[in-house]
Amino acid sequence: MQKLIRRLGADTGYVLIGFPTAVIAFAVTVAGLAAGAGTAVIVAGLFVLTGALLAARMAASVERNMLAHVIGRPLGAPRYCRAPAGSSWFRTALTPLTCGQSWMDAGHALIRLPVATATFVVVVACWGVALAGVAYPLYGWVLYSTVGSDGGLPELIGLGDSLTVSVLFHTAVGLLFAVNLPFVARGAAGLNAALAQAFLSPYAPAYEEPEPGRPAAPAPASHTPTSNTPAEAVAHGAPLHAAR
């Protein structure tokens, strides 16, 4: 039970926090890409595009950190493409434009917003109905006695319009949503996580830089020609009896 509650909290927190971060990442990325593409002909737009990609990279880093609590393991961060040592400042500044992972980060920032919005609405609505229904016995009688009741849904389906029926009906609905809430939250978090894994996982070793001090790959062993005759075997140092 405790594991289920922790999982529910992690999934809900991931979806709720993911919505505002998705909004910010989308707004910054779209604005940067649009402004950069519109002014790329005057070169200054290239630097704006670079800034947009760097902002998307920061948002991707935040997403990777949050994702670890949902999938139960670190996603892993790619080593982004860097300019070779000794490159000019111009090439160094524009290197993110040639990095495939940076563009994948930007694509995630653009595509995630509709998914984050839909899952946020679903999770918040389920939480709202569950809490309101389970707590209805605490405040339902106040609403019934002050505001009054026209029967509502219980009366429409033929259950009556009494206070007891209203309390039992709304409590049952709240319990139903509460029971299904872990599955709804898990599905919503899983959808966002799958999208993040598709775009943000290290996918292209070609973009990775060699780590400083990493030993070079061993050279392939030289092939020693096979001796075909006893005379050649003896010439290569093999014993005469082995050559025979």
Strand content: under 5%
Number of strand elements: 0
Task: Assign an overall shape.
Answer: elongated
Unreliable residue runs: 204-214, 240-244
Task: Give the helix level as a range of percent.
Answer: 55-70%
H/E element sequence: HHHHHHHHH
* Total of helices: 9
Content-based structural category: mainly alpha
- Give the overall average pLDDT: 81
Radius of gyration: 31 Å
| Alpha-carbon distance between the two ends | 76 Å
Major sheet: none
Supply the key terms.
single chain; 244 residues; mainly alpha; 70% helix; disordered C terminus
Walkthrough of the structure:
- 70% of the residues lie in helices and 0% in strands.
- The protein contains nine helices and no strands.
- The protein has helices at 2-38, 44-71, 89-94, 100-134, 136-146, 152-156, 163-200, 230-235, 240-243.
- It starts with a helix and ends with a helix.
- It is elongated and about 80 Å long.
- Residues 204-214 and 240-244 have low confidence and may be disordered.
- The protein has 244 residues and is an all-alpha fold.
